[in-house]
From TrEMBL:
EC number assigned by the record: 3.5.-.-
Entry keywords, A to Z: Hydrolase, Metal-binding, Zinc
Taxonomic source organism: [Clostridium] hylemonae DSM 15053
Limits of the Peptidase M20 dimerisation domain: 223-324
Name assigned to this protein: Amidase, hydantoinase/carbamoylase family
Gene3D superfamilies: 3.30.70.360, Zn peptidases
Family: Belongs to the peptidase M20 family.
Ligand binding (Zn(2+) 1): 90, 101, 201
Length: 421
């Protein structure tokens, strides 16, 4: 019983610190009062990173910020050359998002480092707490910029390729933020420096909350493909132009868009497809649209499904623009395959959940995460915490601070095992 009492004390303390930190970080948003908007290379990102660095310094971690805007806190092991155990998540957010997506996982990682310090643990291999930049891809439509750069998957050409809605490229945004885009490849860690990656994250879906389960042990993360589609037509007068003389980009785009969700439903295996952004140009009520831009985000555990839906979209676009002699462009913004997470680490977490009496279940992640990018190359694992009513990517996103504390303790137990292997 003493052990149980001890853990409750610890949980309470951890809960208090996590609450303090996440409450503090809430202020770093471009939309106060309307959710968290902390876009990459923004003032809010800078403020959040400075706070994370302060927390890392407080527990004597070796703090660094890399050429991609990632921030790391190193707790050095006896053998600093042994592959490290890295734990973290992203500090950026979507627009008008929630206060926990990503950033809570960074705080939990710093908390694990603090607990290791407090226990006076001298690990064989190093522990690194990581805060990644631009996981969401919200500003430039891409995704996993920071964790991708850490794996050497980003170069200066990539930073010039993608722009935000104001036409600012990643390249220009990096310079404005004080980074040197030409140095982006310096963010890559050499092969063998990272041994495993652990990520605590809110579920962002309804499963754990609906089932009343405390922890989600994630065994697979879906693959994702993202596109920006532009359908070209011709601007004309909406009143005088006969229907058979129009080159109406909206008419064509709408016929394609209206099919996409059903193509995902037909797979009947959890495959999803979303058109989250549509923009007509010039956007006048009495003007036949000259151009329509829309995004597509396709996800599935089965990569063939993603490829099939992407192919059907292209075929439908060909067909619809041919009807009126129009044209289309389709820009691939992200392609990443599904990843199966580490069975060994999942088993360790499951044993710790049983030991501490936490309810848990294994589950799929329909959301992409830094673990999806990192898991392409390295053993990775994720631990989900319940999202109230499954809501996320919106201001009402909520997860209890005590749930983050439970996730932290489980991850600490896993980290201690990995650190001494
Ligand atoms: O889009 C996602 O799945 C994640 O929130 N970046
Ligand atoms: Mn996230
Ligand atoms: Mn997100």
């Amino acid at each position: 019983m003493k052990a149980r009492k001890g853990i409750y004390m610890v949980i309470e303390e951890i809960t208090g610190r996590i609450a303090r930190d996440l409450e503090h970080l809430k202020q770093y948003t471009a939309t106060p009062g309307n959710g968290c908007t902390r876009l990459p290379f923004s003032k809010e990102a800078r403020q959040a990173v400075e706070y994370l660095k302060e927390l890392m310094h407080e527990i004597d971690l070796e703090v660094s910020e890399d050429a991609a805007g990632n921030v790391f806190g190193l707790l050095k092991g006896e053998d600093p050359d042994a592959p490290c155990v890295m734990m973290g998540s992203h500090y950026d957010s979507v627009s008008n998002g929630g206060d926990y997506d990503g950033i809570a996982g960074v705080i939990c990682a710093i908390e694990v480092a603090r607990l290791l310090r407090e226990k006076g643990i001298k690990p064989k291999r190093s522990f690194v707490a990581a805060g990644f930049n631009d996981e969401e891809g919200m500003r430039f439509g891409t995704g996993y910029f920071g964790s991708g750069a850490m794996l050497g998957h980003r170069d200066v050409e990539y930073t010039k390729k993608f722009c935000d809605k104001d036409g600012i490229s990643i390249y220009e945004a990096m310079k404005e933020y004080g980074l040197v885009p030409e140095n982006i490849e310096e963010a890559a860690w050499e092969e063998g420096r990272i041994g495993s990656f652990l990520e605590v994250h809110i579920e962002q879906g309804p499963v754990l909350d609906a089932e009343g389960v405390e922890l989600g042990l994630v065994d697979c993360i879906v693959g994702i493909q993202r596109y920006m589609v532009t359908v070209n037509g011709r601007a004309d007068h909406a009143g005088t132009t006969p229907m058979d003389m129009r080159m109406d980009a909206v008419d064509a785009a709408a016929k394609v868009i209206s099919k996409i969700a059903d193509w995902a439903r037909e797979k009947a295996d959890g495959t999803v497809a979303t058109v989250g952004y549509i923009n007509t140009v010039p956007g006048g009520m009495n003007i036949v649209a000259e151009k329509v831009e829309f995004t597509v985000d396709i996800r599935s555990r089965n990569n063939d499904n993603i490829n099939d839906i992407a192919a059907r979209i292209k075929k439908a676009l060909e067909r619809e623009v041919a009807e009126y002699g129009g044209s289309y462009e389709i820009e691939n913004k992200l392609t990443i395959t599904p990843v199966e997470l580490s069975a060994e680490m999942l088993d360790i977490m499951e044993a710790e959940c049983k030991e501490l009496g936490y309810s848990y279940r294994r589950m799929l992640s329909g959301a992409g995460h830094d673990a999806l990018e990192i898991g392409q190359n390295l053993p990775a694992v994720m631990l989900f915490l319940p999202s109230k009513e499954g809501r996320s990517h919106c201001p009402v996103e909520f997860t209890k601070y005590s749930d983050f504390a439970k996730g932290t303790v489980i991850m600490q137990k896993l980290a201690e095992k990995l650190l001494d292997k």
